[in-house]
Write a structure and sequence with these properties.
Order of helices and strands: HEHEEHEEHEEEHEHHEEHH
CATH class: Alpha Beta
CATH topology: FAD/NAD(P)-binding domain
Bound molecules: ligand 48F
Number of helices: 9
Helix content: 40-55%
Strand content: 25-35%
Radius of gyration: 18 Å
CATH architecture: 3-Layer(bba) Sandwich
Distance between the termini: 47 Å
CATH superfamily: FAD/NAD(P)-binding domain
Number of domains: 1
Shape: globular
Length: 251
């Protein structure tokens, strides 16, 4: 029986890995921006895999606002919230919802649409090609190996598009800016300014260089835009927008 369990797990996991070793889209980070992008891309039929460093998904959602289990959204995100079947109440011209429902329903739609979320895997570098310069995939490592400090070489996943949805540190664009001749620096985000932060993040969401895209709070870090705290409409709109841009580019 024990060997049967082992074989079944390894065979099924390997089947998935063999399938997404060549993906249409790799999304790095399963926070609100990554999950939203994953759902909209997989719905369009793109082979989409999300690598998430932690064993849980949702990124900054779970903690709500300073551990109060509610998050706020602007009313103009109602259409996206309805798409994910997320319930809200209206308050002070905002929409409020439970952080647990928000995480669960974003992830559930993403998975049901056909995207694979792989937990416990970190992206530590990109693959690139020159003439023309482009990003063609990512280097991945078990997060446990990363945490242990063991010297273990990563493996690779090729993709037509890589999305940096890693949040405040824009880890993928940051590493690419140092190791690929992109001619960009990642300045980091500014202090909070909710009214303009969300709009600017959505505006700047998109392609950084051929093959590499940025969404969510990583956009603030790449373009030195203000942070917002526990208001998440911009993350949904940014995730949806990056999916639309990639779908257009891959067509
Ligand atoms: O941080 P996170 O939630 O990013 P987001 O989707 O949303 C930001 C909001 O949560 C909030 C906010 C809204 O106003 O300010 O902070 O832009 O999710 C990012 C996810 O990426 C994972 C990380 O564990 C988190 O779950 N992650 C970060 N770096 C890596 C990574 C990496 N190198 N490899 C894999 N996963």
């Amino acid at each position: 029986m024990e060997a049967k369990i082992t074989r079944a797990i390894i065979e099924e996991a390997t089947r998935d890995w063999l399938n997404f070793a060549n993906s249409d889209v790799v999304i790095v980070g399963a926070g609100p921006a990554g999950l939203t992008a994953g759902a909209y891309l997989a719905e369009r039929g793109y082979k989409t895999v999300l690598f998430e460093r932690k064993l849980s998904f949702g990124g900054g959602i779970g903690g709500g606002g300073m551990l109060f289990h509610k998050i706020a959204l602007e009313k103009d995100t109602k259409e996206i919230l309805d798409h994910f079947n997320i319930k809200t109440v209206e308050k002070a011209d905002l929409l409020l919802c439970d952080s647990s429902e928000f995480v669960a329903k974003l992830a559930s739609k993403c998975i049901d649409s056909g995207a694979k979320i792989i937990p416990g895997v970190s992206v530590d570098d990109v693959i690139f090609r020159e003439n023309p310069l482009r990003i063609t995939g990512v280097c991945i490592q078990w997060s446990a190996v990363e945490l242990s400090g063991l010297h273990v070489d990563p493996i690779f996943v090729e993709s037509k598009a890589v999305v940096d949805a890693t949040g405040h540190d824009a880890e993928v664009v940051a590493v690419a800016s140092k190791k690929v001749p992109l001619n960009i620096v990642v300045p980091g985000e500014r202090s909070a300014f909710c009214e303009i932060g969300e709009t600017k993040i959505v505006e700047k969401t998109g392609k950084v260089v051929e093959g590499l895209y940025v969404a969510g709070m990583a956009v603030a870090s790449v373009y030195n835009l203000p942070r917002m705290g526990p208001i998440f409409g911009g993350m949904l709109r940014s995730g949806k927008r990056v999916a639309e841009i990639i779908a257009n580019d891959l067509r």
